[in-house]
Amino acid sequence: MTITKSLEGDGKTLMASVYDRLRADIVDGVRRPGAKLRFDELKETYGVGLSPLREALTRLAAEKLVVLEEHKGFRVAPISRSDLHDLLFMRQEVEMLGIRRSIERGDDQWEAAIVAAIHALGKRVNLTPDGHIDPEWELRHRAFHDSLVAACGSPRLLLLRAQLTDHADRYRRLSHYYHSAGRDHLSEHVALSEAVVSRQAELAERLIRAHLARTVEIILSCEDLQGDGFDD
Amino acid sequence: MTITKSLEGDGKTLMASVYDRLRADIVDGVRRPGAKLRFDELKETYGVGLSPLREALTRLAAEKLVVLEEHKGFRVAPISRSDLHDLLFMRQEVEMLGIRRSIERGDDQWEAAIVAAIHALGKRVNLTPDGHIDPEWELRHRAFHDSLVAACGSPRLLLLRAQLTDHADRYRRLSHYYHSAGRDHLSEHVALSEAVVSRQAELAERLIRAHLARTVEIILSCEDLQGDGFDD
DNA sequence: TTATAATTGATATTCGAAAATCATTGGATT
DNA sequence: AATCCAATGATTTTCGAATATCAATTATAA
Asked: What was the ipTM of the complex prediction?
């Protein structure tokens, strides 16, 4: 019960905080692809000095969410068809690998977590009555997909997968994905969960592959992206 | 003509330069795993201020070559058996994927570049008469392996692969890999090149898998690593 | 008019000092 | 003797000013 003096409440460094907020703004599409990131403006909006800003931007540049041109500053990473294709390719391979390995190594607890996650997901619909995405559904959706690969046992694979997911989320939100989604999510997810839990690796791989490809097709079909240099 | 004062001549930013040197020192093992990276010392040795140093370290942290503990500073990333296993796993999968895809998509020029690379590699032996690694051989070795995956067409895969290669190089140099190498490198590489050029994907995948596994076995067999907390 | 050079303004980069945090030592209390 | 608290020192984190670079505009010459 040490009355440790730490009562500021965050403990997080300024750079970590501005990194989180900046990344969220980019992934959410608030910062448009290709948009210039000027320090004066950033200093203003996030209320921090140059040092934490530069550090946060450097970190984001390493993850390819922003690009740095020497002596010209930072920009939000551009988007393109070819990049989206490359992203899909990597996601298919990485998800397949994560699922295959988890099937090989996962125990009963891993199986149980998947069953729990798909159950929780089924209790929600992806759209609220007024046509917006249910944030709680999005959380459970991500938790479900995480549960599938949770037993793969590879920190590097999981880190890479998390980064790819961020990129994919940005594309999905930049398009108006959910507006055109009459698609039956739940049955796809149920089929996937059953294939994984019953350890049918080949089937699961086919399903996740198709699942990811389908979302990209939908993204490409809503051509809301043209305004951001999406002409490659 | 412009007597502009800019006569330093590099064009590279200070942070880029210190990033390169710092990364080289870490990969070469000059900076030992787990070693503290204090700013006073770094400022001294690299002759730059805090800002470019922090930025370079942040970038290296994103690549997992250094780790950042908040308010405690930066350290060289530790090494461990489990991390080495994870690295091997990822390298096997990524190399396999890159080769498989290159076999699917590569053209005659790609094939020709491989033939050229293996030929150049065969003209050198890996060790100089006095028992050191021939730097020119190392260059050609890397060029050969690069040539195998050069036609995969995925920027993300190539970037990931480059990062994994850096990590692997660090482990190899931290161990005294080449001291214990009576191993026949050339025949392995020749077999690999022939499998790839003749588009035998399954054989090539088996070979690259074994090739990577063998180097890790050698690294683990020279137990020069114990001094750096390699007890996980 | 066109093209080249110089100037200005805007912006990114870097440095050195100030503020905040962590680790360690020494002293007081039980 | 052991434990907890306070104070010191070392180090990181952050800020604001100075420097260097880039981009756009004006001026000059062909």
From this structure: 0.93
